[in-house]
Amino acid sequence: MAVQDFSNKKALLIEDMAEARIMQRKMLTDFGFRSIDIAMKAETAIELLRSKPFDLILSDYNLGNGKDGQQLLEEVRHSKLIPNTATFLMVTAETSIEMVMGAIEFQPDGYITKPFSQAILQRRLAKLLQTKERMLDVNIALDAENYEDAITAATAVMEKHPALTGKCERIICDCLLELKDYDKALALFKNTIKERKMPWDSIWQSQNILPKR
Question: Closest Cα to residue 56, out of 118, 154, 124?
């Protein structure tokens, strides 16, 4: 993978532990990020997200007293303080990653488990931001709540980048549900289960997200 230019990206680092905060800020600076805002708790992060846009949000799961990283993510996604074009990377410990991955509706774009090296974080960020670039038309349509355009764009991404098929199929299913096209959503859901096992399959089944036919 080519070295990615982060110099024009705006980052928000959310970490309550001083040592980890200093280390992660240095990593982001070394990667080329020139604009890095810092928050030590969820409430401060929300204020910053209300005041300016960010390309990357790097948040620890455990943020001390108050909201944790998952609760923060759910609030800012629900209130649309973070567009779909932004990247949210959750920093977790082995003991908390299952709780984060078990979230039904709002999931981060990626996870990184502590402890991690600078090289691992750089590779993870490069891959996530590359995916965001490939999904740009999809995410712009989602932010505009133009679900038909999002389906068209996601279909094009699947054809060009087969590795993103699972992500695109979930988005298409979500869009079909928003459009109340339950028959097509159910058909795609069943086809996905038949061809491959995706994490969201079991979540949708257990929560009865698709209406019973």
Answer: 124
Tell which phi-psi region holds residue 202, choosing left (phi > 0), alpha (psi between -120 and 50) or beta. alpha
For residue 115, cis peptide bond before it (omega within 30 degrees of 0): yes
Q: Is residue 84 packed enough to be buried (19+ CB in 10 Å), middle (13-18) or exposed (0-12)?
A: buried
Task: Check if the beta carbon of residue 82 is closer than 8 Å to that of residue 57.
Answer: yes
CA distance 8 to 31: 11
What CA–CA distances, in Å, run from 99 to 43, 60, 61, 201, 204?
Answer: 21, 13, 10, 17, 16
Confidence at residue 208, expressed as pLDDT on a 0 to 100 scale = 46
How deeply is 65 buried, as exposed, middle or buried, from its count of CB atoms within 10 A (0-12, 13-18, 19+)? exposed
Provide CATH code, domain 10-130: 3.40.50.2300
CA angle 176–178–179, rounded 5-degree value: 60
Query: 148 and 178 in contact (C-beta within 8 Å)?
Result: no
Please name the residue that has the structure tokens 């003991």: 95
Query: 205 near 192, Cβ under 8 Å?
Result: no
| pLDDT tens by residue, 127-170 | 999 999 999 999 999 999 999 999 999 999 999 999 999 899 98
The full set of domain ranges for the chain reads 10-130, 136-207
How far, in whole angstroms, is CA 65 from its chain's centroid? 24
